[in-house]
């Protein structure tokens, strides 16, 4: 306004006006460049992040101005996303390696029951490679039954050209918003065969040990008696070449043979008893009354009953009584060695009944062989008492453990049964 109000020529006025407009346009362009360029950089960075490219960074990131701070935050976001993506890729690679190397057959089926993922064990299971199996339906692969029914369960079916026992586990998940099913098949046959082989080895070792212990003296004494007969000795007679006590030697030899034969017979009877344990017939059992009856059967030592609370359990009364008799008998045997006592108590712990038989004996020197069939440290023991007791406990859905007492000497047997 001053330019037009003053005494200036039109040429000067328009010249100054043009210069002012030019200066303003230049200033506006500079300001626009300083504002638009960072916004364009932010837009490009966000587009790169959306496309999964985390390697691009914006220049001019700084924390002392608003646009620079925005650029700095976008760069920081790119670093975080890059780290997360790298971690996800590494985790995925590890998961794929584990799935490939694990010794169970793993299959993934989509909502149309078409195979989408399988590992090496799955390829061996199907007897065909992934290139041929992927995309085929569960029915075509013979796995339709694995997608139905309750799990986990064990089936015995011919898979992979051989008959075996398999454990089926199944779970559902979603991928890309679509339902999928994960099926895991574990071969139980090999593990069962290995357990069976080890069981037979232990059984044969124990049987061989016990039978040899009886046969060795029988053979030795029979051989000695045979040699004596070959030399012309007769029981009950004496001569110049025969000692007067030959009849007594024959009697002692025959007594040893009879004793060892009887011991071997008891051993085989104990084995038969262990192998033919019937299934328990469950009925309500008054636990305190049963414990008092078992304690009353022991005449060598007065057994203390430390609990008086009323309690009923579902059990086979005869089998449970035999179990407690075995535990109390072992406890009394141990207590008699040291002149200690025996105590029986029970409590409800975590929705289960825990019966404790505690003795003040010398304790257990070695716990590794406690439940090995026919292993015993007693001269007249059969070695099946604890094994039979544990079988009874497990048949009732419970457990039986033995351990040395934490406070004081002696041992404690813990029988746990469902309430």
Main β-sheet, spatial strand arrangement: 2-1-5-4-3
Mean residue pLDDT: 76
Principal-axis shape: elongated
Rounded radius of gyration (Å): 43 Å
Number of strands: 12
For the record, give the distance between the C-alpha atoms at the N and C termini, rounded to a whole number: 103 Å
Range of helix content: 40-55%
- Our count of helices gives 11
What's the story with the biggest beta sheet? 5 strands, antiparallel
Oligomer description = single chain
What low-confidence regions span 5 or more consecutive residues with pLDDT below 50?
236-241
Task: Briefly note the structural class of the backbone.
Answer: alpha+beta
**Percent strand:** 15-25%
How does this structure look, described?
- The protein is of the alpha+beta class and 419 residues long.
- The chain is built from eleven helices and twelve strands.
- The strands form three sheets. A five-stranded antiparallel sheet has the order 2-1-5-4-3. Strands 7-9-10-12-11 form a five-stranded mixed sheet. The chain has a two-stranded antiparallel ribbon with strand order 6-8.
- Helix 7 runs antiparallel to helix 8.
């Amino acid at each position: 306004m001053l330019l037009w109000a003053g005494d200036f020529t039109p040429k000067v006025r328009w010249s100054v006006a043009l210069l002012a407009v030019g200066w303003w346009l230049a200033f506006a362009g500079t300001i626009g460049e300083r504002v638009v360029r960072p916004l364009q950089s932010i837009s490009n960075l966000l587009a790169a992040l959306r496309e999964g490219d985390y390697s691009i960074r914006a220049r001019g990131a700084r924390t002392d101005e608003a646009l620079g701070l925005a650029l700095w935050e976008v760069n920081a976001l790119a670093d975080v996303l890059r780290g997360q993506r790298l971690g996800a890729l590494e985790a995925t690679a590890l998961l794929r390696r584990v799935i490939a190397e694990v010794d169970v057959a793993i299959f993934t089926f989509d909502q149309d029951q078409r195979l989408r993922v399988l590992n090496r064990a799955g390829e061996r299971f199907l007897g065909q490679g992934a290139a041929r199996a992927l995309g085929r339906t569960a029915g075509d692969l013979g796995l339709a039954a694995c997608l139905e029914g309750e799990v986990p369960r064990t089936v015995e079916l011919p898979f992979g050209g051989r008959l075996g026992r398999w454990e089926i586990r199944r779970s559902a998940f979603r991928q890309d918003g679509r339902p999928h099913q994960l099926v895991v098949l574990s071969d139980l046959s090999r593990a069962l065969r290995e357990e069976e082989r080890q069981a037979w080895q232990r059984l044969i070792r124990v049987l061989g040990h016990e039978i040899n212990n009886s046969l060795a003296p029988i053979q030795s004494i029979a051989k000695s008696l045979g040699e004596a007969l070959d030399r012309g000795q007769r029981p009950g007679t004496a001569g110049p070449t025969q000692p007067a006590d030959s009849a007594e030697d024959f009697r002692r030899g025959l007594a040893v043979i009879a004793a060892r034969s009887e011991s071997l017979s008891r051993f085989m009877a104990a084995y038969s008893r262990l192998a033919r344990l019937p299934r328990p017939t469950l009925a309500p059992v008054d636990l305190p009354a049963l414990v008092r009856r078992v304690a009353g059967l022991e005449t060598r030592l007065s057994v203390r009953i430390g609990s008086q609370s009323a309690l009923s359990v579902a059990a086979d009364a005869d089998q449970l009584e035999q179990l407690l008799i075995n535990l109390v008998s072992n406890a009394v045997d141990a207590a008699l060695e040291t002149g200690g006592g025996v105590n029986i108590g029970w409590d409800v712990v975590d929705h289960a009944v825990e019966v404790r038989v505690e003795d003040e004996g010398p304790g257990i020197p070695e716990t590794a062989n406690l439940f090995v069939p026919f292993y015993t440290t007693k001269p007249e023991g059969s070695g099946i008492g604890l094994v039979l007791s544990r079988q009874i406990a497990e048949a009732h859905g419970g457990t039986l453990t033995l351990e040395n007492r934490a406070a004081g000497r002696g041992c404690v047997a813990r029988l746990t049964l469902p309430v």
